[in-house]
Amino acid sequence: MPDLPDAATCYELLARMALIRRFEEEAGRQYQRAKAGGFLHLAIGEEATIVGTTSVMRDEDFLIGTYRTHGHAIARGTEPNAVMAELFGRVDGTSGGRGGSMHIFDAARRFMGGYGIVGGNLPIAAGLALASQYKGEDAVTVCMFGDGASNAGNFGETMNLAALWTLPILFLVENNLYGMGTAIERHSAQTDLSKKAEGYGVPGTRIDGMDVIAVREAVSAGLRSAREEERPTLIEVVTYRYRGHSAADPEVYREREEVEEWRRRDPIESFARRCVEAGVLGEREVGQAREAAEATVLAAVELADASPEPPLDTMYESLYALTDYPGGWYAVDERSPEPHRGEHEADMPERARELAEAGAAYAEVEEEGERPNPALAGDAQDHTASRTGPDPEERED
Question: Which helix (H) or strand (E) holds 214?
Answer without folding.
Answer: helix 212-228
